[in-house]
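Quick log. Single chain, no ligands specified.
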Amino acid sequence: MPEIPLLQLSPFEDYEGRIPFPEEWDFVLVCDDHIINSKEDRKKKKFLEELHKKGFIIKEIRERKLFYGVYAPSGIFRKYQWLLNNPDNESEHLIPEQIDYQQSAITSKRIRIVSFLLHNTEISNTKEKLHDLIKKKVFETAFPLHERGKLGRFLKMNWARWKQMLCRQPLEKIRIYFGEKIALYYAWLGWYTCVLLIAAVPGFILFIYGFVSFSQISKEICEANTTIMCPLCDQKCPFWILSDTCTYAKITHMVDNGGTVLFAMYMAVLATLFLELWKRHRAKIVTDWKMYQWDEEEEEVALELINSPENTSEEYQHSYIRSIIVLILALVVICLLIGIAHLLVLYRVMVTVFLTQSNSKFFQEKATTVAVLTGAVMHYLSITVMTKANKCIAHHLCELERPRSFSEREKSYTIKVFTFQFFNHFSSLIYVAFFLGRINGRPGSYVRVAGKWRLEECHPSGCITDLFLQMLVIMTLKQTLSNLMEYLLPTLTYKCRLLCRKPQSINVEDSCTEEWLSNYQLNEVNVFTLFDEYMEMMIQYSFTTIFVAAFPLAPLLAFVSNVLEIRLDAIKMMKLQKRMVPKKANTIGIWYYILEIIGILSVIGNGLVIAITSDFIPKLVYRYTFSPCKQKNSTGIDCLTGYINHSLSVFNVQHFENTVNLTDPMGNKITHCRYPDYRNSDDYNHSVKFWQIFAARVAFLFVFEHVVLCVKLIAAWLVPDEPRNIKNEQLNQKRKRLIQRLRKMDDSTEI
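-> predicted structure:
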């Protein structure tokens, strides 16, 4: 095998005919230096030989590891500009005050093209690519270099710093350094964070209103010293006084009051406006970047031709058998995730039974609350574990589908992971919101797990309190622990790697050595790093919209988290991780359609929370049907007076399934107890009031969802996807191109 010529600090010219500094290399490959004359060494030499055949200039540095710097020939970039009709003349993209960053833009383009060529270069006899060689330990890693010039220093000082937390993001410079795809992510994240602030203010006001106000219902509960409630479990659970739940009644009023419905409608409409206004904002951004009409598939084909003109592009394929298999396997995974939610239900039931049978009076009284809170923590732990499993399963399902290109693979992978993660995060919440306390039966005829344990009930102060506590715990843990781990783990890993690095003598005459070593010490960045950031935001967006009626503080928590998230991600990308390969994009891709789906689910979810979980409908029916306000002599009386007594059914304690202690906390004998439901006191069948409220729930759900969906459709129709000036600019550009073609045709006809 002929020896591959390696560059030794001699200058060379690039496609613009200038002499670059020796450290301006497109990519760096790293491997161990003890694989000489081995199978891995032979594969390494064959791969470098293939690069040499394509005209790459290669330089070797030996410093504990073998570093190979590669620099692409100028002809590659001339072909790229010719094939795509010079689509990205970087000097046209930059505004005058940024003309100094033109070289950085050229470097970013070079890295993107060279990365494609490196990862699609094959060893002739084995057809192995760089990805395969890294998996087989031939190469350890491959990465582009962070810039040490003006742009790199600017981003570190003015973007990747905690001091700049509340400052505007330099999106244009982010685009030049990391490419349009990452810049669009930060543009969307900044836009989304601003919208969260608009949602956080009324949500916080609603919460404070519920905190400072004192409703008639809370007053009645706190004064119900003689209302005896049925035991919450079979053994050792005493009868209890309704006034014991005074504190939780006040908590319920904070999230379930007169403004809850208006806030839910406000959030549903805001979700639509957010997407519509984002489309306009995106159109303006990509137009400024000259990316409005960019075609991802056309660029991919152009890069394939540059890499290997004789190879044909892989065609689109579709197999119904493969699709059915993938669908069945995906449904199996979804059933597994729903099964985990059922295990969490069983956990809460068993914890409640265990605590109520304990000797501690505190745990007996707080059994339900402790079960809900610890269940939420267990839910968070299951989310953490299953997140990794979901990604692995989605990856294998994508392999079964055999997507044509990386972009197709990314879309398919995104849909699968989001679907799995949605059920992973929300299966338990859906149970708490819509099934908890509604399928557990009644005193004397409880539904039991394995014929032994009673199903858990809603908190005595209302079902929405349980949902509020679940979301509070999960969102708090997810936002705090995720952000801490996302920042501390890379930081500690990088610091430990620096501490473990042994002092060594470096050839000071070679300015590449220290730069390559310092970049090598940074944390690895995988191809799905940006995907993980988007997925985290999609789940957060789901929490802040779908069940926001039960947790109005969700937008505020998300806003605070995102302000930190933007700087945290910037610090990671600029200071802790190897440089991400710049990529082009003119949309946020499949994520936009996921946002639309979440917007629709938010209308359905909030409508169901208000109609089923909340007590809004029973209160409304009572106010206009049974309240004192229906009487002519009821002036000056609160219309909800008597609601608590109205909403509690009566049970004869002689009809209990098991023997219970028939004395109240004061030692008096009890003949009847109360429980929250609408049933007759003789046969315990559902009363007329139950069916009236049921009909009102269905009617409200129908009206709410149709009204909000109509408002969403009207907003989507009313707000144009693109600003008028952007449309006019695109029209003028098309006209200019056609006029130029017409003139060329006329000139050729005259000749």
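Residues 463-500 form the longest helix (38 residues).
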